Amino acid sequence: MDLNVPAPEHLAHMIEGIKSKLRVATAASIKAEHFSLDHYADIKDLYDLVMGKERFSISEIEALCDELKHLKG
């Protein structure tokens, strides 16, 4: 899977990966269909950041979730 190529299935993969890695209580409310391919590059950057880090502080998780909320729509 080449995540550098914008596609709905790649977007869904990245959103699920972010949710899984962050293990947030609100994960059920985060769905791939809430995100547009218009924000693909931003979501890819967020995905790369999340996947590249082993642990997150509570404030980092909150900031990442806020960024996801910003990218919805």
From TrEMBL:
InterPro entries found in the cross-reference section: UPF0435
Domain of life of the source: Bacteria
Listed Pfam families: DUF1128
Protein's name according to its UniProt entry: DUF1128 domain-containing protein
Species of the source: Paenibacillus thermoaerophilus
Lineage: Bacteria, Bacillati, Bacillota, Bacilli, Bacillales
